[in-house]
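Data card: per-record layout.
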Amino acid sequence: MKLLFRIKWTLYICGGMMLMLSTGCKKFLDIPAPKDQIQTTEIFKNDQAATSAISGLYSFMLTLQLWPSNGGMSVFPGLSADEIYPITPNSEMLEFSNNNLRPTNGNLNGVLWSHAYRTIYHANAILEGINNSTELSEPVRRQLKGEVLLVRALHFFYLSNLYGKVPLTITTNYDLNKSMPRTELLEINQQIVNDLVEAKSLLNVQYPTTGRVRPNKWTATALLARIYLYLSEWQKAETEATEIINSGNYSLVANLDNVFIANSNETIWSLRQEKSNTAEGQTFIPIFSFMAPNYGIRDILLNAFESSDQRKSKWIASNVVSGQTYYYPHKYKKGYDFSSPTPPVTEFYIVFRLAEQYLIRSEARTKQSNVSGAQSDLNMIRNRAGLNNTTASDMSSLLSAIEHERRVELFAEWGHRWFDLKRWNRTNEALSSLKAPNWQSTDILYPIPFAQIQANTFLTQNEGY
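The structure for this 465-residue chain is written out next.
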């Protein structure tokens, strides 16, 4: 695959645990393909060095804007669904918004596919180093291995939901990876579940750092609850979500303005930029009040909110430019800040939060005919938004109510709407008119990037491309 070019691939770490000469980010390890194994003796010779490698993994995940784990999973699927549209579009962003993606789209390959696989490769390298090291303390070994398994599972979850069958690369073996065909979804999903179950068993309830910026046990549980929901394993999804809800570590934040601040009590896991607020905030919020945003909220989403829903007033903002009002996502309140070379970092990028777990459990309970339990969970989300209890009282009406709440609670957030429509088989119904004349049912999967098929002739293209 293109992500494993026969060139040196440089892995960076940030921060300070191995600094000998200066501070900041330093070149940590050259990975010269096509060698099968990375020499990791020095990297994993002690707890401090190994922890620095994990810090490097998170720094890599946050490099630049719109990588999958740095805003990209909110923007690209949000464009493909019925949430946002580009205000000043370029041709490649319009392809996502109009659902007429070409396999040669640069964002499709360079941003989504390649960066996700580089992150997986990075995770695999660390995992192999941990497994091969005899010098790490057992608590650190368990924590770091759990974190890496979670990161790998997270990226395979998004790759498989964007592209369908993808190569399941779980080693750093170049010769194996470069010609790997697409793996069946059943096997990919089982690997995701296996990684998360093991991660959950390895991670502690306590966060390993101040703040919720490295995963704990409940982080793995959160993604496990989601994948069980996607796999229609209702009892397991309910069980995992219930563990988090009953843990006592999290609560819904009453003030909607404070849900997305750093270390809010609703946050299960977040990613922290060292010197800036979130890339997502910088992407969605206009630099100046007299400017149009990069991406506007579609009318169909604006009209989906009930009149007294505080999420509309708290999580959506607008600018008036030349007499036209542009609405944009405003969950994160901090965009670009030119007031200081080092502005205060008050928002971390939330990966998992408690509200999703209530919605997962509500849907899982509905599917198991637990009407009162499903209503109770749904009402937690509605009441926090200033709404009355749901009137839904049977499976059909509850599922419609859950779809509505997921839409207005999780909009422009990690691709939830796009993936929900896909897993509910609702994509054609929701998008065929809105995206006419470009929409076709095969658009529910992105095309495999042409550059990847050129590099690996064992890859096949998705139908419709």
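Known properties of this structure: The radius of gyration is 22 Å. Confidence is low (pLDDT under 50) at residues 1-39.

See the next section for split statistics.
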